[in-house]
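for the writeup, i need someone to sanity check this before i put it in the appendix. the sequnce is what the collaborator sent (i think, or maybe the updated version? ugh). structure was predicted straight from it, no edits. if anything looks off just tell me and ill rerun, i have time this weekend
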Amino acid sequence: MSADTVLFPAAALFSIVAILLWVYARTSPAGARWPIATAYAHAHEMLFGYALAVVAGFMITRSSPSLNAALFLCWLAARGAPFFVDGGSAIAAIPNLLFAALVAYSGAPMFMRAAKKIENRIIGPLLIAICACPFLYRAGVAGLPAGAQYLALLLAVDLLALLMLLMGGRAISPAVAGHYYRRGEVLQARVQPRLERLVILFMLAGAACDLVPGAAMASGAFAISAAATTAIRAWRWRLWTVLDRPELWTLGLGYLWLIIGLTLKGFAQITGALSLSQALHGITIGALGTLTLAMMARTHMMRQRRPLERFGDVGAGAVLIGISALLRLAAPYFATSEVAVILWGAALAWTAAMALLLRRLLGFAPHSS
C-alpha cells in the first residue's frame, strides 16, 4: 500500500475540517480562543498539515506498511496536538517535526539518486527545504530568531510554488502531447527545459530575497518574472484546445492560478497596494488547491488503473476551488458586515470541492463522468 492511499484521504478530510473550523473561529466570538484561530496557526495547518501531506503522498512512491503507519500517526498527532497541549510548547511541535523529517528522509533520496539533468536534481533538495520550513517555524515560536514564523510560512509558499511549477509542468506537457498525438497532431513545445530553468532561477532568487530584510521589491520582481516565463511556457502548450478534457484543463487551470498568484505576490511586494498575505491566497488556494485536487485524483486513478477521461467531478471541484480563491481574494473589499458571508462562501466552495475528491478517493465516485 503506497503512502497516498492513507495520506490523500486524510489530507482532503482534514482540509475540510480545518477550513470550516478556522472560518468559525474567525467569525464567531466563541471560536476566537481556539488554537487555530490565529492567521499563523491557520497558515501552518494548511501548509504543513494539508499541503505537506499531499506532497508526501505524491512523492513517496516506495513505501511500506510500517512507514505509512509512522507517517500517518505523526501527521495525525500533529493535527491534534494544539487542542490538547499548549500550541507554543515544544511537545506540541514534536509530531509535526517528526512527520516533516520522515517525509524528507523517505521522499528526497529517490529523486536525488535518479536525477541526471540539473532541473531534475533540484527536486530532492527542494523537498528537503520544504520539510525544513516547519523547523524554522518552530524556531520562530521559540523566538530564535524573531520573525522566523513569518519567514517560514512565506518561504514554504515560495518553495511549494516552485514544486508545483516543476511537477505540474511535468504532468501537463506529456499529457497534452499525448492528447495531440491521439488526434494525429504533434505538440512541438513540451517540457521546454530552458524556460523551466529560468523559472527555477527566478523562484529561487525570489525565495532568497524573501529571507533578506528590505528585499521585498526584488522578490516581487522575481515573482513577476517567474509568472511571465510560466505564461509563455503554458501558452505554447495551447491549453485552450483541451477544454473538452477535464483531466487536462484542470491541470491547466492550476497552472493559470500559479501565474495569477505569482503576479499578485509580485504586485503586492513592489507596490504595497495589496496586502501580501492576501495576495498569497492566489497561490495557496487557487494554485495549491486546484493542483493538489487534480494531482490527487490523477494519482489515485492511475494507480487504480482507471481511465483518466472519467474526470468530470474533479473538473467541477476545480471550478469550486477557483470560486473559493476568488471569494477569499475579494473578501477585504467588502464591508465588514459582509466579510463573514464571503469567508463562509469561500469555505463552503472549498468543502464541496474536497468532498467530491474524497468521494473519489474512498471509491464512491461514479464510473463515468
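The chain has a mean pLDDT of 91. The domain at 3-361 is CATH 1.20.210.10 (Cytochrome C Oxidase; Chain A).
thx in advance!!
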